[in-house]
């Protein structure tokens, strides 16, 4: 009899040990996947924060620029920069033939003319002189410099020719290639050219969408939750509403996208591709999440607090507003943040309402066309050019950073609220 | 003088009847204890007196309850004003998760009883003094009320209840969550409070009922078996059931 008991006890201990082991391995797996994911993103993406520049001597020849003596600011603005820009590139190899001159030109971004112009606008005294100017390298050379380019492929299979590589290597040896922090990644809108593409448009688009979503979803959801939890009679009809709110939370996001397309764009004729429409669509998605979270945290407020307030002669409204709602706010806020974080990462509904369009301007209001960060990731991931690979990862890093900041912010607010109550 | 007059009060939870034909008179400025085994309906009856049963959807109350000759179950009765006159202290101390000051000043604030900050300070001070808590907390009025000990929290709840100068104070087993020392303090307090307030206390402890009350009502299975002066109920009850309960044969 005693021996049996001993065996049983041993068995129970062993079962517990096994259970711990399962738990630990589950956590290990989760961490492993997370680490692999983060490592992959960072190792691919970090180089996007660096940009390669070619340092090219430019002669500001007034004749080639069609400038007269003592030009005014407007003259400099309107001058012709194409010829001197072309010439300074061609001068990199004095023996180049016409084809090679063309290849030389393609070593920098198509933006090079403007970069030269800006240089002169900053310092008009340069007319007639020669100065070394920083020009954005083409995205392929950028990748070559970062060591991401398969140089050993046969020439006809790559976009960078042997001739370009030769000149580029010479420039590298002469110290005329430099890598600097890639400011334009944060200040430029999207571009078809990888070396010029930036996230400013999609970042602003995301911020505007989230703001619109927050301003619509939060008040509506909180009011709905308070009414359902504190005031509505408990009957079949409210049960039915509750079930449907839960169902709404489970509706695939693309369905909301279709709703946005069919109702907001087609019937209300709101401007296409704008954060306004995106935000409204996202708010439909976020609404049930916030309602459910707010109701749960209202439910979690101990009934004794309500009784205390009611017994003091507070009306139902006063009880709710003075006691129940403030106590439930931390939970409601964290639910809101979860909903917004979901909305921030949402791609499908935004694609349907046209926020996938190529937008090369930075939106100044929710009424301007914009992309959003996840859609930008999608657009770039679809692009064939090698230069976009690192951009995708970099954009994911920015999105993750955005999410982490939001969560941090929510935690701080939560902490502040909770301190007040305990 | 009779303060509260209950006439044929029936209470139903859904279809289940919880109280049967309760008729009870409550004397002004005395302590009335309601005793009886668990589930006998004494708390339910107490909650009828400030209409706290309204909060429970399925609960319905029938019959007349006259307070100052005014039927509180009448449609014309305003619950908010009723509860201003009839304070309540609950079984478990339930201070608001706010500062001590805010706890006590809440009632006077919502009922507009103080014109200035000074007046409010006075109300808070007198209420805390009456609740025998002032000396212990006067230096930390702006700290959270939830940081006090259980007994102090309960006295804070009493201070909160008397801050609006109610005529009647209902106490629903106010000492059941407290240790003997805190219980003794509250009992002393009740003795003091009855000078100005009519007090009705529900208690599980017969000793407590004997110590603090002048009148006692004995409830059993939703019926008021017997009521009268505490002396009589405890020494010479008319009913056999009361006798059995008092002597500890059941309950």
Give your account of this protein's structure.
- Chain A is mostly helical and 422 residues long.
- Chain A folds into 2 domains: 136 residues, no CATH class; 222 residues, MetI-like fold, CATH 1.10.3720.10.
- Chain A is 65% helix and 5% strand.
- In chain A, 37% of the residues are buried.
- Chain A contains 17 helices and 3 strands.
- In chain A, helix 9 runs parallel beside helix 12, helix 9 packs antiparallel against helix 14 and helix 13 runs antiparallel to helix 14.
- Chain A is elongated.
- With 251 residues, chain B is an alpha/beta fold.
- Chain B has a single domain, classed as 3-Layer(aba) Sandwich (Rossmann fold), CATH 3.40.50.
- Chain B is 36% helix and 27% strand.
- Chain B is built from 10 helices and 10 strands.
- In chain B, strands 6-7-8-3-9-10 form a 6-stranded mixed beta sheet, sandwiched between helices. In chain B, strands 2-1-4-5 form a 4-stranded antiparallel beta sheet, with helices on one face.
- Chain B is globular.
- The chains are: A mainly alpha (422), B alpha/beta (251).
- At the A-B interface, helix 13 and helix 14 of A face helix 2, helix 3 and helix 6 of B.
Quick recap of the structure?
The complex is a heterodimer of chains A (422) and B (251). With 422 residues, chain A is mostly helical.
Strand-pairing-aware structural class of chain A: mainly alpha
Oligomer: heterodimer
Distance between the amino and carboxyl termini of chain A: 53 Å
Helix content of chain A: 55-70%
The structure class of chain B reads: alpha/beta
How many strand elements of chain A? 3
Which CATH architecture of chain B is right?
Answer: 3-Layer(aba) Sandwich
**In the CATH scheme, what's the topology name of chain B?**
Rossmann fold
Helix fraction bin of chain B: 25-40%
Q: Give the total of beta strands of chain B.
A: 10
Strand content of chain B: 25-35%
Largest sheet of chain B: 6 strands, mixed
Top-tier CATH class of the largest domain in chain A? Mainly Alpha
User: How does the major sheet of chain A shape up?
Assistant: 3 strands, antiparallel
Shape of chain B: globular
- For CATH, the homologous superfamily of chain B is named as P-loop containing nucleotide triphosphate hydrolases
Largest interface: A-B, 21 and 28 residues
Element string of chain B (H = helix, E = strand): EEEHEEHEHHHHEHEHEEHH
| Tally of contiguous helical segments of chain A | 17
CATH architecture of the largest domain in chain A: Orthogonal Bundle
């Amino acid at each position: 009899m005693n021996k049996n008991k001993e065996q049983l006890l041993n068995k129970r201990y062993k079962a517990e040990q096994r259970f711990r082991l399962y738990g630990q391995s589950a956590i290990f797996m989760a961490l492993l996947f997370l680490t692999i994911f983060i490592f992959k993103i960072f190792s691919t993406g970090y180089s996007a924060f660096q940009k390669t520049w070619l340092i090219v001597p430019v002669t500001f020849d007034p004749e080639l620029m069609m400038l007269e003596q003592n030009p005014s600011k407007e003259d400099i603005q309107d001058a012709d920069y194409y010829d001197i820009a072309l010439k300074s590139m061609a001068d990199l190899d004095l023996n180049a033939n016409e084809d090679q001159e063309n290849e030389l030109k393609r070593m920098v971004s198509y933006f090079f003319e403007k970069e030269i112009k800006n240089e002169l606008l900053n310092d008009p005294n340069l007319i007639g002189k020669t100065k070394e100017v920083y020009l954005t390298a083409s995205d392929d050379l950028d990748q070559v410099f970062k060591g991401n380019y398969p140089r050993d492929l046969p020439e006809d299979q790559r976009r960078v020719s042997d001739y370009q590589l030769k000149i580029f290597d010479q420039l590298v040896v002469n110290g005329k290639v430099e890598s600097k922090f890639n400011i334009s990644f944060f200040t430029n809108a999207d571009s078809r050219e990888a070396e010029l593409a930036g996230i400013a448009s999609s970042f602003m688009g995301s911020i505007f969408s989230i703001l619109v979503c927050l301003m619509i979803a939060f008040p509506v959801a909180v009011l709905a939750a308070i009414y359902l939890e504190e005031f509505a009679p408990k009957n079949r009809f409210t049960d039915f509403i509750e079930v449907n709110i839960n169902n709404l939370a489970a509706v695939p996001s693309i369905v909301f996208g279709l709703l946005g397309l069919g109702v907001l764009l087609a019937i209300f004729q709101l401007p296409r591709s704008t954060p306004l429409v995106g935000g409204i669509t996202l708010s439909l998605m976020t609404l049930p999440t916030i309602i459910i979270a707010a109701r749960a945290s209202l439910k979690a407020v101990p009934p004794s607090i309500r009784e205390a307030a009611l017994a003091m002669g507070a009306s139902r409204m006063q009880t709710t507003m003075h006691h129940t709602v403030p106590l439930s706010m931390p939970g409601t806020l964290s639910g809101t943040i979860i909903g917004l974080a979901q909305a921030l990462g949402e791609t499908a509904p935004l694609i349907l309402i046209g926020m996938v369009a190529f937008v090369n301007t930075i939106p100044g209001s929710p009424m301007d066309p914009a992309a959003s960060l996840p859609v930008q990731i999608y657009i770039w991931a679809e692009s064939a050019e090698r230069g976009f690979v690192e951009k995708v990862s970099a954009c994911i890093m920015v999105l993750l950073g955005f999410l982490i900041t939001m969560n941090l912010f929510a935690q701080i607010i939560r902490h502040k609220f909770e301190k007040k109550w305990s | 003088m009779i303060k509260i007059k209950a006439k044929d009060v029936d209470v139903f939870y859904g279809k289940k009847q919880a109280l049967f034909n309760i008729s009870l008179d409550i004397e002004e400025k005395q302590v009335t204890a309601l005793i009886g085994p668990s589930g006998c309906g004494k708390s339910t009856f107490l909650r009828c007196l400030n209409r706290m049963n309204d909060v429970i959807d399925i609960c319905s109350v029938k019959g007349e309850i006259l307070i100052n000759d005014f039927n509180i179950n009448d449609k014309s009765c305003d619950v908010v004003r009723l509860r201003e006159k009839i304070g309540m202290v609950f079984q478990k101390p339930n201070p608001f998760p706010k500062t001590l000051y805010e706890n006590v000043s809440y009632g006077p604030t919502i009922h507009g009883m103080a014109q200035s900050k000074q007046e409010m300070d006075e109300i808070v001070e007198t209420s805390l003094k009456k609740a025998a808590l002032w000396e212990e907390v006067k230096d930390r009025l702006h700290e959270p009320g939830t940081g006090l000990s259980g007994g102090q929290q309960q006295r804070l709840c009493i201070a909160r209840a008397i801050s609006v100068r109610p005529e009647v104070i209902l106490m629903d087993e106010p000492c059941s969550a407290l240790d003997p020392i805190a219980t003794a303090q509250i009992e002393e307090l009740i003795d003091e409070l009855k000078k100005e307030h009519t007090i009705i206390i529900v208690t599980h402890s017969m000793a407590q009922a004997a110590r603090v009350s002048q009148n006692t009502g004995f409830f059993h299975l939703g019926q008021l078996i017997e009521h009268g002066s505490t002396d009589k109920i405890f020494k010479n009850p008319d009913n056999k059931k009361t006798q059995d309960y008092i002597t500890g044969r059941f309950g």
